[in-house]
Amino acid sequence: RSHSISVLRDLSKRTGATIEPVYVLSDGVLSLSVPKTELVRNFKPASERALSSLAKQCKISNLAPSKVIVSAPSSRGSAADALDRYAQSKNADLILVNSHGRHGIKRVVMGSFAETLTLHAKTPVLISGPKTKHISRLDHILFPTDFSQESRKVFEQVLVLAEKLEARI
Question: Is 86:123 a contact under the CB 8 Å cutoff?
């Protein structure tokens, strides 16, 4: 988590980007099967307090108010779709998501929200994993490509970001 925060600080400082902390509250994440009204009444207030507390600890200057999105009934796909729809409604340029880096049976049982989001999102997704090294400045972007038309479109967006960050590609 702290690695993602350092990336967000650098992006915010160097691009003037607004960072909006978001949490997707879903019955699937909680391994429960409860109606949406119960999630909203029983879990959303605690989620909002936890997210607000985390946001205060980040010390990012361009921080927007935090948002809890409720997605129920849920699956990884519907929760990822809910986050992407919200990102699109806010005209977000990027979603930064943490991955737990699960593997083996835990991955099979728990799945990967980050992977599902990456595969389905219309908004670009940047994933930070548990082994991601701490960075203080984004100054070199690695862009793997398959030379497809889609890859070319993404590369054009990366060029714009690299210019704002004064980063090498």
Answer: no
| Helix segments in the chain, DSSP class H | 2-15, 36-42, 44-58, 76-89, 104-110, 113-120, 149-165
d(CA 158, CA 126): 12
CB 159 within 8 Å of CB 151: no
The residue whose two tokens read 């988590």 is: 1
Kindly report, residue by residue over 96-131, the tens digit of the pLDDT.
Answer: 988 766 665 655 444 578 888 888 899 988 888 777
Q: Is 111 left (phi over 0), alpha (psi -120 to 50) or beta?
A: left
**Three-class DSSP labels, 13-27:** HHHCCCECCEEEEEC
Contact by Cβ (8 Å): 15, 61:
no
- Nearest CA-CA partner of 10 in 101, 91, 94: 94
Which residue is listed with tokens 């849920």? Answer: 74
